[in-house]
Amino acid sequence: MGNSGLISSSLSQKKWIVELIVIAVMIGLGVGIISSSFVTFITLPVFNIIVIALLLILIGFLVLCKSIVATLSFNEKIRAQFLLDENNSIISIRKYKFATELARTLKAVFQESKALEKIWNEQHVKSKIGAEVSRDESSNDNQPPKKDIEYYAVCKVEEVEGEPKAKHEKQGGLLKEAIEFVILEELSLHLSSYFNDYQEDDEIRELQRKDVPEFLLENRVFATLTKPIEDRDIFIDAFPDPEKRPEGEICMLYGSNGAMYSKFDLLLPKGTKITKNGNGGFKLENSRLVLEIEVIFEGFSASFSNEFVKFYVGKNPRSTKGKLIYVNISGHVKPLSLLKSSGWVYYKWLDSFINRMKNNLSFEHFLDNVHWEYVSCNLYSQRHKKPNVQNIKDTKSELKLNKALKAEK
């Protein structure tokens, strides 16, 4: 898929495809006229000649269709990462929206459902990664402190054929549900923003919580956080005085304790259906395009540099562990839909949504956005420098002097 996006590039190639077909027909007619003059020299029966000609036409048509379909398809596999602290809570990372939203989502769920929190703690057994270096107070201060030796192992685990995978699937179950909820929220926000001026359009329909298919309500995170406020104990004291309740319909509600409510809705082109795909994700399909989203978590660890964890996240690298997930976004524009020349404005949201997912989910995009490579090099170059104590003292003295002058005035 090019930089212009799938829908935009498909529409731009529509003219090229028509021209290609016209040229192919003209060349075919020319070749047919020329070849007809040689028919008298061929001793094969007429039926065999017709069959050979049809096979050649069919092969050419299939090659053309394959080329067209390839330009109408896309597959983006986005790599995302997150950090767990010593209590196995997901750490919010500033300006990395995926980690921030995932941490907020799970915190909200655990505030409301201790049962789900227990499941999470059982899936992710608490374990200290490393330990603080102990110091012997009676030792000689002139001697440099001993450094613990750290070991890193890369293991290959053989999977026994026929062994049940329930343990592995259970481990990622709640996590995948939370990530799916975060993606659905992003999709909802994106569509609401895109179709803001089309809400009264007959070609747009609103899909609310009561309209979603049953498989989405089986997502425990989705079901918990989109449940109406009136039906949730955690929001009983949210508006003790009904007269002070905000006017209008509440779309989002956050509590200082981490509680969260989201009014789920999707503004979609008319005729769009949301279903479960065969890989455990979900699929949006209408007369013109197909979009499939799948969360892949296989339990693999993710690498975070010690500098990043220590200086950017503000955590001890030895008390954190990284996890790796992939979000696969795939789909295609239906070839016959290119015969329609109007109405594409209702489908161009797909291009900007894919870009939004890359920016919000991709850890590499996040590092580029915060210029981490430059920051990391700068930190490395400053590693042996000691703070200038004299400059610090001069600065403090200057501040005291300025404060005294202001007091006199």
SSE string, helix = H, strand = E? HHEHHHEHHEEEEEEHEHHHH
Rg for CA atoms = 30 Å
Relative strand content: 5-15%
Number of strands: 9
Low-confidence stretches: 126-139
Q: Report how far the terminal alpha carbons are from each other.
A: 66 Å
Assembly classification: single chain
| Shape annotation | extended
Q: In percent, how helical is the residue content?
A: 40-55%
Q: How many DSSP H or I helices?
A: 12
> Which structural class matches the secondary elements?
alpha+beta
- The overall pLDDT average reads 80
- Largest sheet composition: 5 strands, antiparallel
Number of domains: 2
Order of adjacent strands in the largest pleated sheet: 1-9-8-7-6
Give a structural overview.
The strands form three sheets. The protein has a five-stranded antiparallel beta sheet with strand order 1-9-8-7-6. Strands 2-5 form a two-stranded antiparallel ribbon. Strands 3-4 form a two-stranded antiparallel sheet. The chain has helices spanning 6-36, 46-71, 97-112, 114-123, 166-194, 214-217, 220-225, 306-313, 349-361, 363-369, 372-381, 389-408, and strands at residues 73-84, 204-208, 252-254, 260-262, 265-269, 273-276, 282-285, 289-296, 321-333. The protein is extended, with a radius of gyration of 30 Å. The chain has two domains: 6-71; 75-125 and 166-377, no CATH class. It has 409 residues and is α+β, with helices and mostly antiparallel strands.
